[in-house]
Amino acid sequence: MIQNLKSHIRDVNDFPKSGILFRDITPLLANPSALALSIELLANPFRGQRIDMVVGAESRGFIFGTAVACCLSAGFSLVRKPGKLPHKRISMSYDLEYGQDTLEMHADSIVRGQRVLIVDDVLATGGTMKACCDLVDRLGGELVGIAVLIELVGLNGRAKIAPREVHSVIQY
After folding, report:
1. Mean of the pLDDT values across residues 48-72?
2. What's the confidence (pLDDT) of residue 161?
3. How far is CA 15 from CA 29, 94, 97, in A?
4. Mean pLDDT of the chain
5. Which of 10, 50, 89, 97 is catalytic?
6. Which of 40, 60, 164, 165 is catalytic?
7. Is 115:142 a contact under the CB 8 Å cutoff?
C-alpha cells in the first residue's frame, strides 16, 4: 500500500537548488486512487478523536487538510504567508537555514479549547510545523496531533516539535 503511494512520488534532483532531492507529489495528486488512499491514511488515526478543527499550512496543506477535515467532519483553518489574510490575524516568525519566515492565522480561526489536528504534505526540518503548533497554542487550541503525508526522517523535524504526536504516512 505505502509502496504504491511512493510509486506516485517523483524524485527531482537539484530542485529548487543544487544538492536538493525534491519529492514531487503532483503525480500522486493526479492519480485518483493514490490521492484517495493518501487522504484516508492521513485521516484514519484521528477518527473518533473528536477533532473540531483541521489546520493546514499554505499551500499543499490546504489540499490535504481540507480533505482530511471532510473525512473527520471537522472545520478547516488556514495558515498563510504574511499579507494574505484579510481579517485580524496573529503571526509567528521562525528560523530557516538561510534566514527567517513568518506565518499567520486569523485571530478568530480557533476557539479556545477546540481539538485541533495540523495536516501538511511534508515534515522536513520542522520549522514550519513548529510555527503552526505555536499559532494553535497561542489561540488556545488543544493540539491533538500532526499528520503529514511525507516525513523526511533524516532532517529530524520531529525533534523540533516534540513531544507532539506525529503521524506520517510515508517516510524517506
Report:
1. 97
2. 97
3. 19, 23, 16
4. 96
5. 97
6. 60
7. yes
Q: Identify whether 97 is a catalytic site residue.
A: yes
**Nearest-angstrom CA–CA distance, 172 and 165:** 18
Catalytic site residue 60?
yes
> In this structure, are residues 65 and 120 in contact, taking their beta carbons and an 8 Å threshold?
yes
Amino acid making up residue 128: T
According to the model, what pLDDT value does residue 98 have? 72
pLDDT at 129 > cutoff 90: yes
Q: What is the pTM of this model?
A: 0.96
Using the 8-state DSSP alphabet, how is residue 163 labeled? T
The span from the CA of 83 to the CA of 147, in Å, is 26
What is the dihedral sign for C-alpha 81, 43, 138, 93?
A: negative
Predicted local distance difference test score (pLDDT) of residue 95: 84
Q: Please report the sign of the dihedral spanned by the C-alpha atoms of residue 146, residue 113, residue 83, residue 160.
A: negative
